[in-house]
Amino acid sequence: MTFDALLKSAAQRLQLAGSPSPRIDAEVLMEFATGRSRTWLYTWGDSECPTWEHARFDALIAARAQGQPVAYLTGEREFWGLPLATSSTTLIPRPDTETLVETALARAGTPTGRLLDLGTGTGAIALAFASEKPDWQVVGVDVRPEAVALAADNARTLNITNATFLVSDWFSAFTLSSPSASSPGSTFEIIVSNPPYIAADDPHLGQGDVRFEPRSALVAEADGMADLLHLITTAQAFLSPGGWLALEHGYQQAPSVRQALKLAGYQSVESVQDMGGHERVTLGHLE
């Protein structure tokens, strides 16, 4: 079969399987399976596909039709223009999370500073910010050693040298290593996080790519609010004077997060909309 015919057939199969972007999925998997660019496929799509490439592509399409995320099948996802290695041990970076990066950059008003990314996963948020602010020191932490190793590998691959990654259960590494939370080594001008915020009974957990992502990175107690509330309370000890806390959350959680920040004494509390017009990030700062 020709590449064009294979792509058409694969896209139809993925559409029947419920993929939200069947043609794009097929093209990305074809690029990965054959090592040929999308430009080549558009130009020479009437060429015959070699048997072994056909077989590899078919296997990938079969896995995608079963719901396996494209990012896990290819081992890569682009975020903020950066190609990031992915794995099934971490969340897949999503475009909506770029809102959190934009929010942090807008509050980085000094030439230098320190940013902490809690629950860093692939390192997407930390590395995106670090790539834009090379004179800032960026620290990303995650409770899973395999996630920290992945994020560090991404930093090395991208040659981003102002980001480091540590194993830490939220702030535990700083609490254990610092005699007091006010020491210079453990305070930050900006703290960001995309924590678990989905309720355990949310029906979306059984749909789409989320089915294959680590549940521990998705689900929180108290109807999805437990980790958000914990970070709002504990982050205060690790923020520099005037420092900002910015949190990603579910599209219906903004009012609750704003209220929690205000009750905890944060100032200038506001929410920021994502590309879909949903309130996705809420932030506040300390005096």
Automatic annotation (TrEMBL):
It comes from the Bacteria. S-adenosyl-L-methionine binds at residues 119-123, 142, 170, 194. Its EC number is 2.1.1.297. It catalyses: L-glutaminyl-[peptide chain release factor] + S-adenosyl-L-methionine = N(5)-methyl-L-glutaminyl-[peptide chain release factor] + S-adenosyl-L-homocysteine + H(+). Residues 6-75 form the Release factor glutamine methyltransferase N-terminal domain. InterPro entries: DNA_methylase_N6_adenine_CS, HemK-like, Methyltranfer_dom, N5-glutamine_MTase, PrmC_N, RF_methyltr_PrmC, SAM-dependent_MTases_sf. Keywords: Methyltransferase, S-adenosyl-L-methionine, Transferase. SUPFAM superfamilies: S-adenosyl-L-methionine-dependent methyltransferases. Substrate binds at residues 194-197. It is an enzyme of class 2 (transferase). Methylates the class 1 translation termination release factors RF1/PrfA and RF2/PrfB on the glutamine residue of the universally conserved GGQ motif. Belongs to the protein N5-glutamine methyltransferase family. PrmC subfamily. This is Release factor glutamine methyltransferase. The lineage of its organism: Bacteria, Pseudomonadati, Pseudomonadota, Gammaproteobacteria, Oceanospirillales.
